[in-house]
Amino acid sequence: MRPAVIATALVIGLALVTAGVLVPVLMLLRLDDMTLNRWSQVGQALEPVGVFFSGVAFVGIALTLFLQARDLQNQREELTVTREEQQRNSEIALRQLHIDLIKMAIDDRELREVWPPIAPGVAETKKDHYCNLILNLQKVAYEAHTIELAELRSALRQLMASRDMYAFWTKARAARGAITGGDEAEDFFTAEADRAFTDAGPPPPRTWAHALIRILSHRRSGP
C-alpha cells in the first residue's frame, strides 16, 4: 500500500512541475503585453499559495525519507534477531548432540572409556557423566530462555546440595574452567556453577546407618 501511495505522489509531483514549466512558456508565446501584465499581477498575488504548496511538498519528501529510513532500520533489526535466533538454535542442537553422546557413554562402559578423564589422575564414575548431563541440561535451558537467571542459580544451588554433584564438581571445576577457551557463555555458566559450589560447602560425611540403608535399597532394587 505504501509504495503505491509514494509512486502516485511522485507522478503527481512530476505532472505539476511539468505544468509549471510549460504554462508560462505558452503564455509568453500567445498572449500580448497587457494580458501578460495582468497574469503577472495574478501570479504575484498567488505567490503565498505557491510557497505553501512548496512547503507541503518539502514536508512530504521529508516524511517519505523518514518512513523509508525507519523501514530500513526495522528490517535490519529483524535480520539481527533472526540471525541471533538461528545461532542460538544451532548451539542448542550441538548441545543436544553432546547430551546424546554422554547418554551413550553412561549406558556403555566401552564407550565411556573413549572420553578423557575429568581431570588428570582422577577416576570417574557413571555418576560423574550423569552429573555432567544434568548440568548441561541447566545450561541449555538457560540459553534457550526456558529459565531465567534467578531460576538457574536456584537450580544450581539445589544441585550442589547433592553429595554426588558436589563430588563431581570438585573433580571437574579446574578442568571445566581450562577448556572453555574464553567462550563467554561457557565462562558465565562455569562461574555460576562454581559460585553455587562454593556457597554449598562440603556436604556432611555419610554415617554408617546411611550407608547401610543405601546397600539394602540397592539389594532390594536389584534383580
Which characteristics define this entry?
223 residues, mainly alpha, 83% helix, rod-shaped
Strand and helix map with partners:
Elements: H1 2-30, H2 33-45, H3 47-107, H4 109-112, H5 126-143, H6 149-160, H7 163-178, H8 184-200, H9 208-221
- Beta fraction of the residues? under 5%
Alpha carbon gyration radius: 38 Å
Count helical runs: 9
Q: Return the string of H and E elements.
A: HHHHHHHHH
Structural class, judged by helices and strands? mainly alpha
Could you name the ranges where pLDDT drops below 50 across 5 or more consecutive residues?
none
* Record field, number of beta strands: 0
**Mean pLDDT, all residues:** 75
Net shape? rod-shaped
Secondary structure: helix percent = over 70%
Number of domains: 2
Distance between the termini: 73 Å
Assembly state of the chains shown: single chain
What does the largest sheet look like?
A: none
Protein name: DUF6082 family protein
Organism: Actinoallomurus acaciae
InterPro entries: DUF6082 (IPR045728)
Keywords: Membrane, Transmembrane, Transmembrane helix
Please provide a written account of the structure:
It is a single chain. The chain folds into two domains: 82 residues; 87 residues, no CATH class. The protein is 83% helix and 0% strand. It contains nine helices and no strands. Helix 3 runs antiparallel to helix 5, helix 6 crosses helix 8 and helix 7 packs antiparallel against helix 8. The mean pLDDT is 75. It holds the Pfam family DUF6082.
